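Researcher: Next entry in the queue.
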Amino acid sequence: MEIRKNEENGNIKITLLKEGKETAKAKCYYTKTPIINGKIIGTIGNIEIINKEHGKKLLSECEKIFKEKGIHTIIAPMNGNTWKKYRTLKSTNNEPEFLLENVYPMEYNTLLETSGFSECNTYTSNKGKIAQAYYSEAIEKVKSKLKRNNIVIRKFNKEQAIEDLTKIYNISIKSFKKNPYYTDIEKGEFLEQYKQYLTLIDPEFILIAEKEGKEIGFIFCVPNYNELKIYGEIKTLILKTIAVLPEYEKLAIGNVILNNIAEIATKKGFKDWIFAFMHSTNTSQKIAKRNKAEIIREYALYRKEI
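Model: Structure for this entry, 306 residues:
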């Protein structure tokens, strides 16, 4: 077995080879990774395993690197931080993979567990019928209250895409701070990540809440284009992100935004929606249950102290 180590952008890539062919590889991240209680967390990402035994050896080599760097907590799989690919598929009801479902395969759970990692976070994707969307007279009262407070909800403006993406960025970096393993992200990097969605979006499925022109909340939804290959039509909407600034959370803006999305989606012929990648303890789980959405996927994240 040959082991190669190369530095890439301040992190280290490890590749294992047998007879000149790659059998396992990963990247050890320790720059721009989560910081907890003032201590840097190491993450293992960009994992590709062909040979299972070499996979265990790979994780062992990653541990050695982190020890050399004085890092004692490892999170895996995570490509640096939660703004990038992370989590493994833990369970599924065998529905086809939906758009944006970019996670590591189920077999990595066993690899991580046998290498001494323990599950530290669980996430779900829930699917429901848009026709069963939660509605009550209270939502109308909230809409009236928002109007009295000069809060408006508008669709994304593709003609001013960078400006609106910047508004989404401003909300995200404030509302996501309480999420597990949150790390800051520079605006330029955020915009580059979200620009890739501009060809996929329907502006009516991205709503921004503003108070006197200042952004305070948003919802970002994308049609499940994967269904075109399977059914020849798109009938499911993916709710990728919904966020409201902490100081406005009590106004129930999220409920109003979601209600608006349900109305728009129904008019456009969508039947189902997926509440994607929700942390098991997040308030979004309550929203999904209120809208009678049931779990179709579970995902896991692992941690190890060294």
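Model: The mean pLDDT is 95.
Researcher: Noted, moving on.
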